[in-house]
Amino acid sequence: MDKFGNPVPPGIPGEIYIGGTGLAIGYVDSSQDMDHFIQINTNKIFRTGDFAYRDEQGRIHFIGRNDALTKIRGYRVDLLEIETSVLKIDGVSAAAIFVDETDKYLIVCALCLNAEQTLAEVQKAIALDLPSYMVPGRWLVLNTIPLTTSGKIDRSKLKQRSGASSQEKGANETETKLIHLFTELMKRSIERTTNIFDEGAHSLIILQAITRISKTFNQRLSFNTIYAHKTIEELALLIATNTNSDKRIIPINTHKSDNENLFLLPSSVGSSSVFSNFKLAESQNLWGLDYHSISKEDTQTIAALAMALHQEITRVDDSLTITLLGYSMGAYIALEIARILEKEGKSPQLILVDVNLNPSGKRISNLKEDERLNEIKQEFGSLLTNYSPVPLSSTPIVALEAKENSLPANMQQWRTYGSSFVHDYLEGDHDSVFSKANISTAILKVENALNTFTARRVQLISNDFSAHSS
């Protein structure tokens, strides 16, 4: 049946319920009856928690446990699949996978290892076997996996162990403040020498940490800085010695100084780490623009933010033709940078990735707003609500739209906003177009866009030559 208790047709997944004269009266612990024993008219049925579908011949095909199926950042994840992958690694004697109770993005793996196996080797094997969104973000190495009296894994005890917290103190005041800050954000004890990313820190936690570090220490750190200083000890030293030299422009994949450059502007998270899987031919340099490291005074409007980033771009590339790729909110910033370049007499080229024409329209991300945007809204205020795109005059636009959005970006609406327009699609949804699973398609489509720009420039030169010849 579906979640409303209605029978589902063949081919449609539903939860298995059982009934009949052989059904038990209830659990010994009657407090569990409410969740599992359901009364329909005069009949009592049992909710198994097993998901399956029935084929046309009436055969039942098991999919998985209801409590093992979850969604992580828009992806459907089967926790049993992860558990099976961990257990098949040599040297792993037991394992249990669950989602952290206080952080629904965090997959936790509790496991027991033989003496010859190391956690690092297990993590390496899992990273090769599973897509990145299924790789556990927190690992608990235990002597034994706790079991219930019936011999099943006691997941409640595991979750208590995962969330256990203590008031750890640092070697100095800065460390102690950082420990308390990350302990509060991550809902678990963080030690001064522990890699915070091994403990499950992800982009949303880092975004919140950037804001709080700014308020606490009056220092702006970027995503890249925190990724480079992964422990409390390293971050505290950076802050205490004031050696933070955050850059707004980050080399992602650069080769020769005389190569053509492609400047990448990320989504509202503001970190170019979203493009970390992105690599083009060696004839192309890739630069990421991190706008979360820019002070609030420079981020009152999209135009002001664009002006600050334009200055960074021209330090790297002051040529006539500059190519920009803007993803989500970064597309609006890229549009305004292109406008500045047009006024300077230059010839920008623009790739827009999965963005609505209307900045205040319905969001196309699959992630819930309260999980993703609260901290961003605090940082940017009314940045998007007060912004409305205006067409460019001489900039060609290639629009790349995610195929699998529940709310389409409708990027055909950008057709009249540039001197020429090409529309194409990327694999995945808004939040996964640059993931490892979809990056090969993204690279191909961006290379196609660059070839389109090159062909257009050649055609313009040819037309200009013909006009002068005649």
Protein model, in words:
The protein is of the alpha/beta class and 470 residues long. The protein is built from 13 helices and 16 strands. The strands form 4 sheets. It has a 7-stranded mixed beta sheet. Strands 1, 2, 3 and 4 form a 4-stranded antiparallel beta sheet that branches. Helix 5 (173-186) packs antiparallel against helix 6 (203-217), helix 5 crosses helix 8 and helix 9 packs across helix 10 (329-343). It is globular, with a radius of gyration of 26 Å. Residues 366-378 have low confidence and may be disordered.
In short:
It contains 13 helices and 16 strands.
Primary descriptors:
globular, seven-stranded mixed sheet, 470 residues, four-stranded antiparallel sheet, alpha/beta
Mean pLDDT across the residues is 80
Which stretches of 5+ consecutive residues score pLDDT under 50?
366-378
Number of strands: 16
Run of helices and strands:
EHEEEEEHEEHEHHHHHEEEHEHEHHEEH
Q: Please bin the fraction of helical residues.
A: 25-40%
Shape: globular
The description of the largest β-sheet is: 7 strands, mixed
Q: In angstroms, what separates the terminal alpha carbons?
A: 76 Å
Strands, helices and their partners?
Layout: E1 14-19, H1 33-36, E2 37-40, E3 43-54, E4 60-65, E5 69-72, E6 75-78, H2 79-87, E7 92-99, E8 107-113, H3 119-129, E9 138-141, H4 155-163, H5 173-186, H6 203-217, H7 223-228, H8 232-240, E10 249-253, E11 260-265, E12 284-289, H9 302-316, E13 323-327, H10 329-343, E14 349-353, H11 369-372, H12 374-380, E15 396-402, E16 420-426, H13 439-469
Parallel strand pairs: 8-9, 11-12, 11-13, 13-14, 14-15, 15-16
Antiparallel strand pairs: 1-3, 2-3, 3-4, 5-6, 7-8, 10-12
